[in-house]
Amino acid sequence: xxxxxxxxxxxxxxxxxxxxxxxxxxxxxxxxxxxxxxxxxxxxxxxxxxxxxxxxxxxxxxxxxxxxxxxxxxxxxxxxxxxxxxxxxxxxxxxxxxxxxxxxxxxxxxxxxxxxxxxxxxxxxxxxxxxxxxxxxxxxxxx
Length: 143
Description:
Blueprint: H1 6-9, E1 11-12, E2 17-18, H2 23-33, E3 37-41, E4 47-52, H3 53-67, H4 72-78, H5 81-84, H6 98-108, E5 112-116, E6 122-127, H7 128-142
């Protein structure tokens, strides 16, 4: 098995939310689908932000501390993803080499990288788990 590019390892068409989604929407999506990163897109499918589990947990804990458990769901419905999402993050393109991207993961300790085309349209997502899965497959092949 030879996998050389981001396109060959990424998860295509990842789950995402629009900028007007609520924290409750994102929280439910992360919990139901067991994911830790959600790309935020605009109405044209262009990537505009990332919502990470770490950011979401911090927001939920802040709401709990301020308003208590009984108000949490209501407050989550009032908090927009656009107000929480990270806007300063790295991206990769499908044709980038995995060797280059693996080095980036190691040096920067990122959990994921969104994959975009030249128009910033979200095409996929590449996670550290993808690399662990690839390593396991390669080790299994070696016998």
